[in-house]
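Appendix B, example 12.
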Amino acid sequence: MRLDEYQWSHNPRGMHNTQAAHFFDVERLARMHMGWAKIVAVDREFMNVIPKMLANNITPIVRLWRPRFGANGFTSDMVFAWKEYMSAGVRWFEFYNEPNLEAEWPVETPPDFNNVAGCIAPLMENWMDFAEKIIEMGGYPAFPALAEAVGRGEDVTSWLVTMFAYLSDNAYDRFRNIANNGLWCATHPYFYNHFYQEGANARQARSPEEQRADEGGWHFEYPYDPLTQADHPGLTAVSGGPDYPLGDPIGLTGMGQAFILKFQELFGGGAVPVVGTEGGITPVPSPGGVRQLDQRFPGFTWNSHAEATVALFNWLAQIGPPWMFGLTLWKDDEYWEGPSGPLPATRRLMETPPAFKSVPPIDALEGPGPHVVKVPVGPGPIHGSPDYHFLVVAPGFNTAWFFDNARDYWERFRPTVISSTDYIAYLPYAKSLGITVLATPDVAGFMTQQIKQRWPTVYFDLITGEQEADVATVLRERAASGRRFG
């Protein structure tokens, strides 16, 4: 399926309803020139408003809400509701919502991207069942929107990488078939103040009071904008230096970019649509206030928020990536019924005609993909003790130091000392591996992600210390007590 074959309004502007089962005022959406409406429903309560939306060139997106849904599969009542919505003209559907947050899972089964068997596997298997059902009925299924968080356990890039790794290893052809028949990616870009309008040059930003939506020079491409690249050369949505080892996707298009990059890398993808199904420039300050979470960028004010909101939609239509189809702002009541009254953005959107997006004919898939035949590589599960023991001296420590100061550990256990984790891939799946990593605290997280996400069957043994002497002490104690692993 090609990017230009999806049916939608071609207007990137959108709005999210206030809460599950809370109705939209379609006339209000039309006055704001909206092209998308994100509907969180419980059942079929929105059936009567769908024709009104479509008559006003507003494309509805429907998700059926269930509390703490976790990785559950769809039910018969969901299928019945989907069919009814589809008969009314809905084509775009979501299923899971922010599965990297505990609030979306049953209390007894918290989410963990490292728990492939108990969390990632059922999530992806049941999502594929949903996607195939929606395609069978003639609709477009969304890849799950992840909360764009960067905290421990919730890290959005770690979740995306782990989900893609599971699909690549266990459902390569099945996922490619879904991708080629209507797949799209939902994102939740709450992107702080990661945008600006140029002043005298690309690296000089205007103050909030000087910003004008109908003038050029806007940058919403974070982290690829000139200001960010001057600070962090080469930073992308999925990779960067030691301070951003997994990149930084917290921008308007960042998570969509991360999805497309992994899709192309692992599945030979071209492009599928990306729609931000909630997000925007938030939280909006009260009159007289300023929000400036990232000090590298100008803050935004009660009034400049309006200019930037209009500008972001124009940017998506005229400059943004061809696959980024729009954003539904979070949320309807906050734009109309806030403590200080309607946001100025509502007025600016009503008085400003929308820009429409022209979509090129890009195929979802470009060829057979990098792994036509999927053969398991790398070590398999451990049964008893691992067959091999590798030891990695992470950046920050010297390999020669290890042999001088930890010889008693090496002579007792004889681990294979390696300089790159890429060597793990050369082990056959029939063999298992335990790996000991010596690292300073500042690179320990990076090494954990590099190994545990890519090789979930490996036994991971981490030793950290600020100084080489700290690590040497631990290794000597292990050698004395006969403990290979911690």
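The chain has two domains: 3-351, 388-481. The two ends are 51 Å apart (CA to CA).
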